[in-house]
Amino acid sequence: MSTAIAWIRRDLRLADNTALHAAVSHADWVVPVYVLDPVLIERYAGTKRLAFLYGALNQLDASLCERGSQLVVRKGNAPETLRQLVLETGADAIYAEEDWTPYARKRDDSVVQDLPLRLVGSPILRPPGTVLKQDGQPYRVFTPFSRKWRTFPPPAASELLLPPSQIPTPETQSLPIPDHPILDNETLFPPSEQAALDRLQRFGQGPHAPIYSYAEHRDRMDFEGTSCLSPYLRFGLLSARQAFVAAYEALACAPDEESAQGAQTWLNELIWREFYVSILYHFPHVLENSFRPALQGIAWADDQSSFDAWCAGQTGYPVVDAGMRQLLETGWMHNRARMIVASFLVKDLLIDWRWGEQHFMQHLLDGDPAANNGGWQWTAGTGTDAAPYFRVFNPVLQGKRYDPQGVYVQRWVPELRLVPQRFVHTPWKMSIQEQDKYGCLIGQDYPAPIVDHKVARERALAAYRTARME
Question: Which residues are designated catalytic?
Answer without folding.
Answer: 269, 272, 300, 335, 353, 376
